[in-house]
Amino acid sequence: MPSYAFFKKRYVPLAEAKISVMTHAFNYGTGCFEGIRGNWNADEGQCYIFRLKDHYQRFLKSCRILKIDLPYTADDLCQMTVKLVEMSAFREDIYIRPIGYKSSEIVGVKLHDLEDDIVVFVVPFGPYLEGDKGIRCCTSSWRRIDDTGIPARAKITGIYVNSALAKTEAHDNGYDEAIMLTHDGHVSEGSGENIFIVTNGNLVTPPSSDNILMGITRDTVIKLAQAELGISTIERSIDRSELYTADECFMTGTAAHITPVVEVDHRKVGDGAIGSLTGRLQALYFDVIKGKNKGYLQWCVPVHSKAMKV
Ligand SMILES: Cc1ncc(COP(=O)(O)O)c(C=O)c1O
Questions:
Q1: Of 8, 9, 61, 155, which residue is the catalytic one?
Q2: Is 223 one of the catalytic residues?
Q3: Of the residues 254, 281, 285, 299, which should be mutated to test ligand 1's pocket, given the most ligand atoms within 8 Å of the CB?
Q4: Domain boundaries 4-126+293-302, corresponding CATH code
Q5: What are the domain boundaries of the chain?
Q6: Whose CA is nearest to atom 6 of ligand 1?
Q7: Nearest alpha carbon, ligand 1 atom 12
Q8: I need a surface site. Which of 18, 198, 215, 251 has the fewest CB within 10 A?
Q9: Tens-place pLDDT, residues 153-189
Q10: Model pTM?
C-alpha cells in the first residue's frame, strides 16, 4: 500500500516529497512537528484519528513560537489530513507526521525573513515501546533543555537532539527509555513521553513549568482518570527519589500510548509488575483511541465514509 504526503500544496506519493540539502530547517533544526496516530478498528473497518484538532492546535502554537506562518487554520489542516489518510488506505495503525518548517534554501542562522512551508506524511506504525511487560528506565545524565534555551512546550525538530542523546545513552546502557531531569533536578519527562507516578494513592505528574511537552496523551489520562475512575491528578514537581519509592509509574505519548515502567535505575517500581491503576488506565485508553468507547467518540475522527474490507 503506497504512503502519500501533502507536499508543496499537493498530494504526492511519499517518495516524491523531497527537500533540498540547503533547506534551512535541515541545516538548523528550524521546524516544528506533530505525531498523530490513526488507530485501526478492525471490527468496524475504520481508522480513527485521535484528537486530531488538539494536535493541530498545539502545532500552530509551536509554529507561533518559531515564527512559522502557515496559511492554514487547524480545521484546514484536519481536513487535509483526513484526505491524506483516506488516500493511503492502510488497514492498520498509522502515524501522521506534519512538519512546519523554514523552507528557504539559504545559509544563515535566524528565524526572520525566511519562507515557511508544511509537509504532512502518513506511515504504518505499530508499537513504539514494548510495553506488554513494562519497561526499564534510567535517569539520564542529559538534563532536559530549559524553557530559557529551547521551549519544550513547542515540538521543535532541533530540540529532539536533547531527547536523542538521552534515548541513546539509555539504550547503550541496556535500558528501554530515559527519564530526563530538569536543571534543578526534578523529573521532567522521557525522550518522547510524559511521566506519571502513583504514590500514597495519588496520581502525580510534573507540571508544565518542569520543561515538558504538554502531552495530549497526558491530558487524556488526566481526563479519563477523573471521569471514569474518580481520581484527580496532582500536577507538581517530582523528586528523582520519588521514582524509587513510587507504587506505580507509567509513561504516556501518542507513540508510546500508556507504557508501564517497572524498573528505574535498577530499583523495582512497586513489586516490579504492572500496577493496577496503570492497567485500568491502559484498558480504558485503548478502547477510547480505537473508537470503542462511545462516550469519547468526539476525540476520534473517522477517516473512511464507508467501512473498509479487512
Ligand atoms: C518530548 C515529548 N514529551 C511528551 C510527548 C507526549 O506527547 P503526546 O501525548 O501529545 O504525544 C512527546 C510526544 O510527542 C514528546 O516528544
A1: 155
A2: no
A3: 254
A4: 3.30.470.10
A5: 4-126+293-302, 135-274
A6: 253
A7: 192
A8: 18
A9: 999 999 999 999 999 999 999 999 999 999 999 999 9
A10: 0.97
